[in-house]
Each structure stands twice: as structure tokens, then as C-alpha cells.
Amino acid sequence: MAGERFQSFGRATPAAKRTVAADTAIELMKSGKAKANGLLAYGNGRSYGDSCQNEPGSVVDMRSLNRIGAFNVETGLLEAKAGVLLSDIIAHAAPYGFFPAVVPGTQFVTLGGAIANDVHGKNHHRRGTFGCHVESLTLLRSDGRTYTCSATDNARLFAATIGGMGLTGLILSASIRLMRVPSLDIVETATRFADLGEFFELAEAADQANEYAVAWIDQLAGGHGRGRGLLLSGNHAEQGSHQASRAGSRLSVPVQPPFNVLNRPFLTAFNAAYRWKKGRSAEPRQTGYQGFFFPLDGVGDWNRLYGPKGLYQHQSVVPEHAARQAVPALLDAARRAGQGSFLTVLKRFGSIRSPGLLSFPRPGFTLTLDFPNRGDKTLALLGELDRITVAAGGAVNPYKDARMSADIFAASFPDWQRLEALRDPAFMSSFWLRTAKKLEMPRGRVEAAE
After folding, report:
1. SS3 of 327, please?
2. Is 38:57 a contact under the CB 8 Å cutoff?
3. How far apart are the C-alpha atoms of 40 and 108, rounded to whole Å?
4. Would you say residue 206 lies in a domain?
5. Element (H, E) at 70
6. Is 238 contained in some domain?
7. Is 90 among the domain residues?
8. What letter does residue 17 receive in the DSSP assignment?
9. Overall domain count for the chain
10. Which of 61, 234, 257, 278 could form a disulfide with 188 if both were Cys (CB 3.0 to 4.6 A apart)?
11. DSSP-based helix, strand, coil % in the chain, nearest 5
12. Is residue 80 part of a domain?
């Protein structure tokens, strides 16, 4: 049964109607009986939009493929099935002094999902994307063949699968290279900045001096406080824990509230408290890795706080030369629309190129905003954010999206046809249907479809 268990994390799009177990899907593919557009891998449901949904077909529950295989404690090379969670990889490797080179904002993503979305973290300037650390992967396609893919073997499939949103086939397993660290703990420094101009002056130096750097913006602040925030930088502590703390939620939202809890009064109070707590001292402090990398993992089902209609996340990247104009314009657009973002995150992407064909990160600055789904009002704002981003020469992140137009996708990823050429014909997503497949239609048919 599908239901809420196979919904996207944003919960603004319908849950999957049909699901199939991983073993069943594998048998279908090996026997050549998989139907066109009938399958799409589903990891642990942490994608915000509909790139993890397949309206015309079924999603494949990959969580049964969750075994960690060989691990070289000298080199940090780890082999695992695609359904293994990053939290399990962290726990497995920590006693030997290793940690994933790149982690996103939650540890509850699968290995296959991290590859398919080519996730990034707070250290893109040092380590690039997750795909930069994938040595090889095994990919099952609907022709019944299993392909071993790497930078040298089946290289085109390898590049298309990293950041390919699960459209090239079923990732069965992967070999990744972890990073040696002195401990899991992080020495964190919080630096206040009064406005975005001050942040841009601080950002490059923070990247050069630290493994990790990310800024939190007080998106609701106006007047003299407009653009203020905290620059949080960090490095692994020389002395600290080598044991992963228990991966789980200390708190949870047990039921769905009938309305959006994250309203403006709440957000104003939260921002004030967060700014005070994190920014009350400029002195470095040692903290656990969970709080630094995965603060929201401590609250189970926190996405329910946005209300029964769910949330939209908008993540953009704009070139460095345009950021001083584009980032304030994005924040001003949200403020004018009267929409408050619970978490507003600004980071600097470095120049390390991903091996992935359609990877989102590129040199510049990336801004992430979360909005409760208020229907047409929110969709209009998101459309305006798209327009500002593309006009600045930037891109909108498809892995976080649930509504961008085909034209915005094409402007963000002009090489999308290269992925379409390598897409497995048995695999499709709701995202790909409303973007890439619309771009393939003659203009008259597109207008009729709309």
C-alpha cells in the first residue's frame, strides 16, 4: 500500500499511488517485462518535490537493499547497497576515523538517493558534490543487463546516473571514498553580519579557512536589520568523539496539525531566539556532528508543522558576479509577498566540477528558502523567484522542486537532452514528465496540454 509512507518530504504533491518491492522490480527488469515509464526508485522519502514520484507508474521501495559490504579501514573505500542510509554509513565508519566527504542537511537519505540527486553539503568549496567521491556503481537497466559504471567503465552512464534523478535505471550498489577525520565533533564559529554586503565580504575568507561554511539569514528582518544573519563555519575537532551518536529523533510531531504552525509571529520569535543562541559568542565552541550537520533530524516529522498542504522549497544558484544583486532581490521578493521562510540558508559553491551530467551546484552562491503551501499565492512567488534566478544567469534546483516550468528547467539545465538520451525507457518521474517531456512536444501540443 502506498499512502503517506511514499510521499515526498514537501508533501505538496500527491503520494505515490502504486509501489513495488525492490526484489520484484529487479525480477521484472531482468526478465525484460518492465513496462515503459513504469518504474522509479524511491529511497527514504527526503526529496522535497516530485522527482521521487512517478504518476504513470510505480515507485520502487529500495529500503530493503540496506547492507554495507566491504570497508577498507586504511583507504576509506566503502561498498554498500543503494538502500543504506547515510546515518548507517556514518556509524559504520566513525570508529575507524572516517566520515562521508559530503553530507546534505539530513542523514536519513539513502546512498542511492545521494547519488541520484548528487547532493551537496557545507563544504562544496573543499570537496565538491557527493558524486565526486563515488568510485563506481552498479546499475540495472530494463534491458536485463547490470552495468558496472565508473569514470572509465560505461562512463556516459556513470555521468548520467550521478545527478540523474533515478532515470537511468536502478542503482543497486556503489563504492564510495570516505574522508579521514580526526573526530566526528566540530569546532564551530558563529560570526554575526549586519547585512548581505558584509556577508559577501566574509564568505570567501571563511571558505579558505574552514572545511565547512554556511550562512543563516534572518529573512523576516526589515529596515536596518535587512539581510542580517550568522556565518557558521566549522572544522573537525582534533580531539573528540569517534562514536556516532544514536541516529533518531529526540522529539517528534506525532500528528498533523490542521493549520500551518510556522506563521509569522512564530518565525519572528524563532529567528530572534536562534540569532541570540548561535550568535551570543564569537568564540569557537566544540559541538557534536549531529547538531552541526543535521539539526532538524532531531525532530521527527517536522515537515508536518507546515500544515496539511505541505511546503515548497526553492533553491537557486546564481553566479558570483551577479549574487550581490540577485540574492537581495530574491529575499525582497519573498518579503514583498508576505511569505516567511522558516529556514533561509545561503552558501558559496566552489569551482570543483561534479562528474554528474546534470549536477545542480556550480560556482556562485546558493540560496534556499522554505514556504508553507498557500496555493496560488505561493506559486506566484516561486515563479518570481525562478524569473530572478534565470535572469541572473543562475539555475533552480530540480531535486528540491515540485512546480517549476519546462522553460525554467531548460534555462537551468540546457544539456537536459543528454540525460533524456540515456534515460532507461522503463523509468520516469512526475518531474521529468512536466519538464523535459513537455520540452520534447511541439509547441502547439504543449499549449493544448496546458
Report:
1. helix
2. yes
3. 19
4. yes
5. strand 68-71
6. yes
7. no
8. S
9. 1
10. 234
11. 35, 20, 45
12. no
Partners of 179 in the β-ladder: 99
Domain ranges, residue 400: 186-406
Question: What confidence tens digit (pLDDT) does each residue in 163-175 have?
Answer: 999 999 999 999 9
Q: Read off the pLDDT band of 1 (50, 70, 90).
A: very low
Sign of CA dihedral 357, 361, 367, 372: positive
Distances (CA, A) of 268 to 139, 274, 327: 47, 10, 21
> What does the DSSP 8-state code read for residue 152?
S
pLDDT tens-place string over residues 16-71: 999 999 999 999 999 999 999 999 999 999 999 999 999 999 999 999 999 999 99
Length of the chain: 450
Amino acid at 262: L
Count CA atoms closer than 13 A to 189's CA, side-chain side. 18
DSSP H or E stretch at residue 170: strand 170-177
370: phi then psi, degrees, rounded to nearest 5: -115, 135
CATH of the domain at 335: 3.30.70.2520
Give residue-wise pLDDT tens across range 426-448: 999 999 999 999 998 664 443 44
Residues 6 or more apart whose CB falls under 8 angstroms from that of 288 comprise 184, 185, 186, 241, 245
Are residues 340 and 220 in contact, defined by beta-carbon separation less than 8 angstroms?
yes
What share of the chain in percent tops pLDDT 70? 96
The enclosing H or E element of 278 equals helix 264-279
Rounded to the nearest 10°, the torsion over CA 380, 435, 324, 117 is 120
Place of cell 508533501: 11
Mean pLDDT across 10-17: 92
In this predicted model, what pLDDT tens digit does every residue of 314-352 receive, in sequence order? 999 999 999 999 999 999 999 999 998 988 999 999 999
Q: What does the alpha-carbon distance between residue 68 and residue 106 come to, in Å, rounded to a whole number?
A: 19
Specify the pairing of strand 299-300 against strand 98-99: unpaired
pTM for the whole thing? 0.94
Buried-state track 112-125, b at ≥16 Cβ within 10 A, e below 16:
bbbbbbbbbbbbbb
